Amino acid sequence: MRRGRRNSQGDDAEVNMTPMLDIVFIMLIFFIVTATFLDEKGVDLTQPPPPPDSDVPSKSTPAITVYVDGRDQCSVDGNRTTCDRVALRVERLLADKPGASVILRLDEGARHELLVGLKDELDTKGLASKIEILRSQS
Question: Domain locations in the chain?
Fold first, then answer.
């Protein structure tokens, strides 16, 4: 029996990967150059340290307090209101107390989405506010 020789061209064919690697690197560079990076703002929840006892403020400024309890119910200066109308209440009170600061006091059991929503709403209306998280009394 005679054994035939195999055709070496058909069985040993290799694929040249160089053009495919070139295309992959070009696409990678294209996507890196054209990518847009978002500058997201976060909410700073760090509280400043309490002032020393020797510092006595010479003139106290009035404050408007927005309180959100653990059941996500809102009140502005002790008057209960719906949380979507807080910014309107604060604007109305600022007309009576010009230069007053706004303090957002939230129970630690309140939803964080509510905190972010209230802070964003006050910021879009140009009302600067400070955040204070209150620990539950249990």
Answer: 63-134
CB-based burial label for 73 (10 Å; 0-12, 13-18, 19+): middle
Q: Does domain 63-134 have CATH number 3.40.930.10?
A: no
Q: How many residues does the chain have?
A: 138
Buried/exposed 90-124: b ≥16 CB within 10 Å, e otherwise: beebbeeeeebebebbbbeebeeebbeebbebbee
Task: Please state the pTM of the whole predicted model.
Answer: 0.54
45-104 pLDDT, tens digit per residue, is: 776 777 676 655 556 677 888 888 888 888 888 889 888 888 888 888 888 888 788 888
